[in-house]
């Protein structure tokens, strides 16, 4: 036991002091934080930039009801044609031109000219206002009184309320996106960690072999002690890195929230928002772009509203067993190889199930209780990723237990495999390793 | 007297016999040479002794006790293929290997200071192994094998990679360790160092031991009743007369003196030769030709080759 702890300590300390580990510990959280912050930040810049849209209104009436919308400012221009603006667009001071033709009552068509991409929200807003006013004018023409129009115009909003199969209400609508984000993040994270640290085991074993230092070591310790110490040491490095990533990402994102997005972090409370909408003179609300905005707010709330305890515990468990499963296989293969250059042909086939579960990640998240998701979480090679992706949506206990059971069982098998390869392969040099080599060793007594 | 006793060791790898019924006995405090051509099975034997491999059959005892797991702490091993952790600092590395052999850091520190002084290694403390010269790395590797003061030291080609000065220094250290009571097993192709260092040897060829014993006795037993004579006088007449009753192996004529080697035939003794020679002139020197290990090795191995 003492020997294993010595090896464990060396594996752990030598790796944790490496520059690459320190760099990864800083770059990783920066990337995670950047993935959260940069889109928001760009959106914020976008929001702060006011685009001026010129309205050329041949009807001389419809243009006036188009009010400033989000970061679009509308100005009605007269005595100018579209052609004149087009020829000197750069100096016109406009970002776009909305042309309302005189025949719009018949053609039902208006055109936006611009040199930049036109936001769907802008199109939807302009379309909505024009439709509303054209309808209004048409109804007036049919001798419908304005009072009646106001009375019959009924804004309808569709609310969605989900409940569980037991009939309990769940706050599904907002949390579904939240859960999907969490599922993707957790699945990618565990994929990354299992893959990275599994390969690290492989490289570590080969390093000792190609260094030839292994002969000195096995003259002092048993191969299995070396193997166990190494696998556990690297495992702890992985866990430390994970904790560092989470802690640092949290710190960076929190700091960013406080500094860059104070308004996003304190969203208007719901009742207040409803009141504002009610009191607005135009009874009809039009807020297409806020859908996207809400999503963004959600992203931040994801960091608040998740059951971190369960997710962490699950990550630790599934990382450890998944890592042991793959690490064992990688260690066993590494024990047979003597050059770093031989590794590529083995890394891909071994990690294929991991890649497969990432490929199937979308179908797991779309239908977390579906057949694909269930089977992937029972097959040990795909279970860590599948389970991490399913957990935010809730998984029946028996399925969790079955998944844990098959994983633990295959972990033990993987360790046996590694131990066998270690015993026979560590001092084997210059042999071309094929699948049959592995079977031959497995068959030996 | 036997300290390490290996009896009937056999080991097979994937249908090839690496060792076949090899028995060796090594006395305490001697330097034992393990010789043999490449691929003979020396390394397999060394690895079995170091408990890296287990023998398929046969037994090894140390001081009449069966080889046990704890014995690895009493053994030091310098493998032929050298290897250290390249990125690890020298001192850390040596303490690590010492710890694996059950030695405390404090004791290892003390020993390391002694060894770096003995082998004249400077400025090593904070260096990584990869920053050292090849010769330095070899020295560090040697220290790794002796830092924990083993009772038994196995050296596989210890002199390879050393310049003559450092090889000599190493030789002196090996002799010093022997004088301190360490039992040393030396596997090498360098027959000069075998003659300089070894008390006894075993020769392994094609998985079998074909020769074992005290070095001096072996050499004596390979002596072929040949004598080297340096002579001054009537050489040509002497040669003619010798030719009838002795076999002349080689001869070099010089102006004043000549040297020749002759082999005695049955019923004659060295005294007869001397008597015969003095009739024609004066004997400057007279000595028995004792083969060196180099020629014994080649002789035995090539003989075995033709036998099979």
What's the tally of helices of chain A?
20
Report the CATH superfamily of the largest domain in chain B: P-loop containing nucleotide triphosphate hydrolases
The structural domain count of chain B equals 2
Q: State the shape of chain B.
A: elongated
Rg of Cα set of chain A: 31 Å
Portion in beta strands of chain B: 25-35%
Show unreliable segments of chain B. none
Mean pLDDT of chain B: 90
Elements of chain A, N to C (H/E): HHEEHHEHEHHEEHHHHHHHHHHHHH
List the helices and strands and how they pair.
The complex is a heterodimer of chains A (445) and B (308).
Chain A: H1 2-16, H2 19-48, E1 51-57, E2 72-76, H3 82-87, H4 89-92, E3 96-100, H5 104-107, E4 111-114, H6 120-141, H7 146-152, E5 162-163, E6 169-170, H8 172-211, H9 213-218, H10 223-260, H11 262-265, H12 270-279, H13 290-305, H14 308-336, H15 344-359, H16 361-366, H17 371-378, H18 383-390, H19 397-425, H20 435-443
Chain B: E1 2-13, E2 16-27, E3 31-35, H1 42-49, E4 57-62, E5 65-66, E6 75-78, H2 90-100, H3 105-118, H4 134-146, E7 152-156, H5 164-179, E8 183-187, H6 191-197, E9 200-205, E10 208-214, H7 215-221, E11 226-233, H8 235-245, E12 247-253, E13 258-263, H9 270-278, E14 281-288, H10 293-307
Parallel strand pairs in B: 3-8, 3-9, 6-7, 7-8
Antiparallel strand pairs in B: 1-2, 1-4, 4-5, 9-10, 11-13, 11-14, 12-13
Helix pairs in contact in B: 2-3
Summarize the structure.
By secondary structure, chain A is mainly alpha-helical. Helix content of chain A is 69%, strand content 6%. Chain A folds into two domains: 2-40 and 174-443, no CATH class; 50-152, Periplasmic binding protein-like II (D-Maltodextrin-Binding Protein, domain 2, 3-Layer(aba) Sandwich), CATH 3.40.190.
């Amino acid at each position: 036991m003492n020997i294993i702890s010595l090896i464990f300590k060396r594996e752990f300390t030598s790796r944790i002091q490496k520059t690459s580990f320190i760099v990864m510990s800083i770059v990783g959280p920066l990337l995670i934080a950047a993935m959260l912050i940069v889109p928001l930040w760009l959106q914020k810049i976008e929001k702060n930039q006011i685009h001026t849209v010129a309205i050329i209104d041949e009807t001389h009436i419809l243009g006036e009801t188009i009010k400033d919308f989000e970061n679009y400012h509308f100005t009605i221009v007269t005595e100018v044609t579209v052609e004149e603006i087009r020829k000197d667009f750069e100096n016109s001071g406009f970002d776009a031109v909305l042309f309302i033709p005189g025949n719009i009552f018949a053609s039902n068509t208006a055109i936006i000219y611009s040199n930049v991409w036109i936001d769907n929200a802008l199109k939807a807003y302009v379309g909505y206002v024009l439709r509303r006013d054209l309808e209004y004018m048409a109804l007036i023409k049919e001798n419908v009184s304005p009072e009646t129009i106001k009375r019959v115009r009924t804004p309808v909003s569709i609310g969605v309320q989900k409940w569980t199969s037991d009939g309990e209400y769940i706050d599904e609508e907002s949390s579904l996106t939240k859960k999907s984000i969490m599922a993707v993040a957790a699945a990618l994270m565990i994929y990354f960690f299992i893959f990275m640290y599994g390969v690290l085991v492989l490289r570590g074993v080969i390093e000792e072999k190609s260094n030839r230092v292994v002969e000195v070591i096995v003259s002092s310790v048993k191969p299995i002690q070396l193997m166990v110490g190494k696998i556990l040491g690297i495992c702890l490095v992985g866990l430390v890195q994970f904790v560092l990533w989470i802690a640092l990402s949290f710190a960076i994102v929190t700091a960013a929230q406080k500094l860059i997005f104070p308004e996003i972090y304190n969203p208007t409370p719901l009742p207040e928002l409803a009141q504002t909408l009610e009191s607005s003179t135009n009874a009809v609300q039009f807020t297409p772009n806020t859908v996207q905005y809400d999503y963004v707010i959600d992203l931040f709330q994801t960091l608040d509203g998740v059951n971190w305890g369960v997710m962490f515990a699950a990550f630790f468990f599934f990382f450890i067993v998944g890592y042991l499963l793959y690490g064992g296989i990688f260690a066993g293969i590494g024990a047979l190889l003597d050059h770093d250059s031989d590794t590529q042909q083995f890394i891909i086939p071994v990690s294929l199930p991991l890649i497969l579960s990432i490929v199937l990640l979308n179908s797991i998240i779309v239908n977390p209780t579906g057949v694909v998701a269930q089977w992937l979480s029972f097959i040990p090679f795909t279970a860590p990723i599948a389970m991490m992706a399913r957990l935010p949506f809730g998984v029946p206990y028996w399925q969790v237990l079955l998944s844990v059971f098959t994983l633990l069982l295959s972990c033990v098998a993987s360790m046996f495999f590694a131990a066998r390869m270690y015993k026979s392969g560590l001092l084997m040099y210059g042999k071309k390793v094929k699948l049959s080599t592995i079977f031959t060793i497995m068959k030996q007594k | 007297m036997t300290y390490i006793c290996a009896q009937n060791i056999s080991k097979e790898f994937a249908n090839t016999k690496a060792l076949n019924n090899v028995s060796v006995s090594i006395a305490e405090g001697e330097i034992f040479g393990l010789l043999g051509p490449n691929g003979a099975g020396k390394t397999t034997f060394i690895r079995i002794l170091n408990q890296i491999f287990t023998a398929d059959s046969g037994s090894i005892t140390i001081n009449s006790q069966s080889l046990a797991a704890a014995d690895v702490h009493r053994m030091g091993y310098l493998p032929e293929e050298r290897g250290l952790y390249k990125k690890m600092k020298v001192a850390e590395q040596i303490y690590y290997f010492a710890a694996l052999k059950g030695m405390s850091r404090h004791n290892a520190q003390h020993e390391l200071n002694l060894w770096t002084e003995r082998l004249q290694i400077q400025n090593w403390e904070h260096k990584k192994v990869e920053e050292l010269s090849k010769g330095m790395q070899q020295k560090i590797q040697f220290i790794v094998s002796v830092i924990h003061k083993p009772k038994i030291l196995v050296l596989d080609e210890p002199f390879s990679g050393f310049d003559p000065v450092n090889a000599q220094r190493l030789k002196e250290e090996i002799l010093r360790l022997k004088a301190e009571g360490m039992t040393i097993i030396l596997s090498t192709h360098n027959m000069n160092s075998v003659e300089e260092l070894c008390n006894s040897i075993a020769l392994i060829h094609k998985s079998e031991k074909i020769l074992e014993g005290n070095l001096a006795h072996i050499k004596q037993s390979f002596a072929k009743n040949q004598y080297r004579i340096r002579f001054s006088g009537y050489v040509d007449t002497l040669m003619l007369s010798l030719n009838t009753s002795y076999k002349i192996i080689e001869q070099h004529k010089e102006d004043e003196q000549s040297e020749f080697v002759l082999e005695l035939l049955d019923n004659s003794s060295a005294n007869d030769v001397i008597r015969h020679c003095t009739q024609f002139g004066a004997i400057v020197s007279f000595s028995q030709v004792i083969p060196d290990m180099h020629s014994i090795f080649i002789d035995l191995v090539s003989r075995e080759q033709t036998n099979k």
